[in-house]
């Protein structure tokens, strides 16, 4: 078996004027990413996602990877991540290189799973896993005036028992947003907050101490991702766990987070961290050092499916059934047809339970008509 075709497919969608949404760093109306379709000589097709703009991803694949991947045996997939650091030398640490490696890697694992008729999470060494706990990623900052409580009420009505909300726009606003979320979710629900790196350490610490009374499971990106000394300062001054990783890519960036103990939870994104091969290495490093792993997801339906397969494979070490801490997967609740429409059977988080696809590979089927509707390089 060998790879005979590689196709990069940029897709995008845009919210109407005035309906932008985002985080403490600003609003946006456009969602875009790049799908990758790989086909082998026996007709097996695999899908991946590069969490990067289409033109950049396409150029990177063409310039650095097409010649290597064409003719490649999909079962050699784990060599790709290693080679990305050495050939092309000096470029392996680039976010765009790692995003493209991610897409190729995930697509090849999808092909392997289809070839051996097993879901990827079983191939990665995980036990059989049927369900995960989804958490609603919600309460975004919006351009249009919207009551703060509506997104959380929507999540509760959908059956979510866990949610992550956006904060990071100022002390008073942070406390009020957290108070409202906890009041609506109830005392037994799991609540996380995301500052999106918008604070200096002292600002993050001030908010963290004020919201600790609301039983926060983790604080995500309290300072910018490149500010490792800031992470250490925040961690030394608060008790709430810290999470990060969506803006990190490749094993070496995550190794620094883990070795330096600057976070309690690492959050690799399967469309950027290097794919399943790197994510498995990251998870092994993290669990060895007793750091938790919870994938970040802000992707299309393909990236979502990859995150679910990865999450289902992660070891629960050191926990046993006597320490209940379910593996949680982020489920963005913003309007995003790239997630909700491009799969023939979209993943469904309603009822507070997310079924892990048990079919071969990623376990999902792509709706090619929907992909073409959102494709940006037609013709």
From TrEMBL:
GO terms for biological process: amino acid catabolic process; carbohydrate catabolic process. InterPro entries: Enolase-like_C_sf, Enolase-like_N, Enolase_C-like, Mandel_Rmase/mucon_lact_enz_CS, Mandelate_racemase_C, Mandelate_racemase_N_dom, RHMD-like. Residues 148-241 form the Mandelate racemase/muconate lactonizing enzyme C-terminal domain. GO terms for molecular function: hydro-lyase activity; magnesium ion binding. Keywords: Magnesium, Metal-binding. The keyword Magnesium applies. Its cofactor is Mg(2+). The keyword Transcription does not apply. Residues 344-368 are annotated as: Disordered. It comes from the Archaea. This is D-galactarolactone cycloisomerase. The lineage of its organism: Archaea, Methanobacteriati, Methanobacteriota, Stenosarchaea group, Halobacteria.
